[in-house]
Specification:
By secondary structure, the protein is an all-alpha fold. It is 71% helix and 0% strand. The protein has 13 helices and no strands. The longest helix is centred in the N-terminal third of the chain and has 23 residues. The model has no long low-confidence stretch (mean pLDDT 83).
């Protein structure tokens, strides 16, 4: 039996991987190498997790849903909508978000490269470091279920625990994600009308944000009021 903590952590990873897969199809992330900056220490740690993911299989699923699934196509259209672009612009204007990006950047992850891949896809201006006829074959829930079936949850969990215990840069990054700065970011997002609209749309598609919320609260010690 998996504990609630294991299931929650796994679902957070899976949700992040879905986003990575969509980005990989629209604009490949340099053969799925985590982008480095400076000494690349944090990028090297995150690469260990990426290397466990069956990227090619995920991309095949993304292509299939993109070509054949009505609900998935609707979500991709929503990603290009004024409402979603406004949400992304709002998030990128939050000082705490910029602080976390700058932290990751200084720790060796080129976080701005990843953020600007999203902005490029949405036709938004890039951020600069240290600046402010188809059918329905499963819908979004079916897409997420297929992706989740590919994820090596136990291996990712073991690697996470091992790196928290043995990697100073990864442990520090994990603490940052549970810091007062991260809590302030969560509070501002939960107060955002655009963000709550996004949550409602995602829930209607079957995304299980309640599991993610519990993981953020139990693993990182954050309070998630939305």
């Amino acid at each position: 039996m998996y504990s609630k903590e294991n299931i929650c952590r796994g679902n957070m990873i899976k949700f992040a991987l879905v986003i990575l897969a969509v980005l990989a199809v629209t604009s490949p992330l340099e053969a799925f190498t985590v982008p480095r900056t400076g000494n690349g220490a944090l990028a090297d740690e995150l690469q260990k997790f990426v290397d466990l993911i069956p990227i090619k299989e995920i991309i095949e699923i993304v292509h299939r849903y993109k070509a054949e699934d009505i609900e998935f196509q609707q979500v991709l259209e929503y990603f290009q909508s004024y409402e979603f672009k406004t949400l992304i612009t709002e998030i990128e204007s939050i000082p705490e978000w910029i602080h976390i990006l700058n932290y990751a950047q200084s720790a060796g992850l080129d976080a701005y490269y990843l953020v600007n891949k999203v902005n490029e896809y949405l036709h938004l201006s890039p951020l600069k470091p240290n600046s402010r006829a188809t059918r329905n074959i499963g819908g979004i829930r079916g897409f997420l279920d297929e992706i989740e079936a590919l994820i090596p949850t136990d291996q990712l969990k073991s690697l996470y625990l091992e790196r928290v215990a043995n990697s100073a840069v990864f442990a520090d990054f994990n603490r940052m994600l549970g810091s007062p700065i991260a809590q302030t970011l969560v509070n501002k997002l939960c107060a955002s009308i655009n963000f709550n609209n996004f949550l409602t749309k995602a829930k209607n598609y079957g995304v299980r944000f309640d599991i993610i919320r519990v993981d953020m609260e139990e693993r990182l010690g954050l309070t998630v009021p939305c």
